[in-house]
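FORM 7B: Structural annotation worksheet

SECTION A. Query
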Amino acid sequence: MDKIFKALSDESRRKIISMLVEKDMSVNEIAKDFNKTQPCISHHLKVLESAGIVESRKEGQFSIYSIKMSSIQYIINWFMGLRDNK
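SECTION B. Predicted structure
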């Protein structure tokens, strides 16, 4: 859970998550919406992938990133559990 919260603590990573909710994207597609280099976006994606929030698959020479919905559901369930324990 600590890795998830660390990954979510960064505004750029939260924006990347919002983008990936809309559609699966390559690092180059994601980088177009940022004033950051492609290696910087790749780093953010690696942090999100390490936390289990996104996953990637190869399509030709590109890695395509998508939201790992099981992790998002885990986060939601965790927050709901906090609410239910009040």
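SECTION C. Observations
The chain is about 60% helix and 15% strand. The longest strand covers residues 54-59.

SECTION D. Sign-off
Analyst initials: ____
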